[in-house]
Amino acid sequence: MKKILKSLAFVAAAVLTVSACSEEKTDEVNNFRIHRGTNVSHWLSQSEERGEVRRQHIQEDDFARLDSLGFDFVRLPIDEVQFWDEKGNKLPEAWELMTNAINWAEKHHLRTIVDLHIIRSHYFNAVNEGNDDANTLFTSEKAQQDLINMWYQQGRL
Asked: What whole-number distance in Å separates Cα of residue 102 and Cα of residue 153?
């Protein structure tokens, strides 16, 4: 009888633990609701702008305007070449601009989706441009490890 009670207690504790964990994860997912958003493009992705021109391209008042228009999220595409040099070193200006954008979005009640849009080892237009050699991500272990290392390096995103 003691074995049965211990077993039932164990099962009950396991069910409650799983239930609590599931509820917590569901709440996390449900807290990131998005309905109406826009893309903040050609700024930290697919752009040659740098320095003051890039700094002025997107400002806090742009996020305030999006909030006032009823948007609840922004998609922020970023390109590897704007954030890391070819040796994998961070390029501070782009990181500062992205951090500002995320902070401005939060201040103006907007969720942010950061999209690592173009990476050196895979470019979605390379095949169309006849440069299939540019897409090594799925064929080169080094390219795969380089991508993983970029994200480990940043870890805070």
From this structure: 19
